[in-house]
């Protein structure tokens, strides 16, 4: 399958998705959204693919939603079409997604990166929610996910002033898991993805669901939910294999059953 705004590569069990609108610094237009929806659905549906890396170019992960496309839209257009709701397909992805960010991740670009399970940043990365400078607000989850990632003070400051945060500050603030040299970004992200792809598939799904639950549930319900998923994995062949392999001092071989 080929896409107008994405380049897709498969590296064994890892899908690499590159945003590819260099003329617009990967600004997210409706074609990009349609392509992302199709690419993420294809990834989720393919049992051979176990982890996805979403990246952009050296200069920009994505410089935001496409301002030229949005500029003449009315309230009725936006509200009527539930503009941006399609991105829920990205967050509905059941298997892991890593965002590998170099250069600008602004507005919708920062928000798309935060939809991933975690972000690995190049030392060139710059994160920001500059919508205020366009007389609008974050609209793809930025006001919510940024607060949860870095707390109210920094999130509020960034959304109200539009200032950018560099990679070192983003790591200190907890927005990104790790910062790596720009030239090593994609290789590092693919290596991390390959590590995840080699884990028992049902346990990977369960970990993702557990950690997601921490954002949706009160603590007591989240702990109960975690424990039930933990219990449930004792119904899997891979749990038997994983523990037997540990005892026998050999690597586990997973069936995904
Ligand atoms: C459409 C964009 C774009 C965007 C860049 N381009 N960002 N086109 N939408 N978000 C285009 C430029 O118009 C230009 O094309 C080309 O990409 C290169 O950009 P330059 O500005 O020439 O590059 P540079 O001088 O290096 O500046 C980089 C930049 C700047 C600092 C990232 O491009 C910038 O500020 N972009 C907008 C960032 C932003 O405000 N993002 C939030 C968008 S709103 P041409 O053809 O003109 O040369 C958003 C909303 C979310 O995301 C939900 C609420 C509505």
TrEMBL record:
<keyword id="KW-0276">Fatty acid metabolism</keyword>
<dbReference type="InterPro" id="IPR018376">
    <property type="entry name" value="Enoyl-CoA_hyd/isom_CS"/>
</dbReference>
<protein>
    <recommendedName>
        <fullName>enoyl-CoA hydratase</fullName>
        <ecNumber>4.2.1.17</ecNumber>
    </recommendedName>
</protein>
<dbReference type="InterPro" id="IPR014748">
    <property type="entry name" value="Enoyl-CoA_hydra_C"/>
</dbReference>
<dbReference type="Pfam" id="PF00378">
    <property type="entry name" value="ECH_1"/>
</dbReference>
<dbReference type="GO" id="GO:0004300">
    <property type="term" value="F:enoyl-CoA hydratase activity"/>
</dbReference>
<comment type="function">
    <text>Could possibly oxidize fatty acids using specific components.</text>
</comment>
<dbReference type="InterPro" id="IPR001753">
    <property type="entry name" value="Enoyl-CoA_hydra/iso"/>
</dbReference>
<keyword id="KW-0456">Lyase</keyword>
<comment type="similarity">
    <text>Belongs to the enoyl-CoA hydratase/isomerase family.</text>
</comment>
<dbReference type="InterPro" id="IPR029045">
    <property type="entry name" value="ClpP/crotonase-like_dom_sf"/>
</dbReference>
<dbReference type="GO" id="GO:0006635">
    <property type="term" value="P:fatty acid beta-oxidation"/>
</dbReference>
<keyword id="KW-0443">Lipid metabolism</keyword>
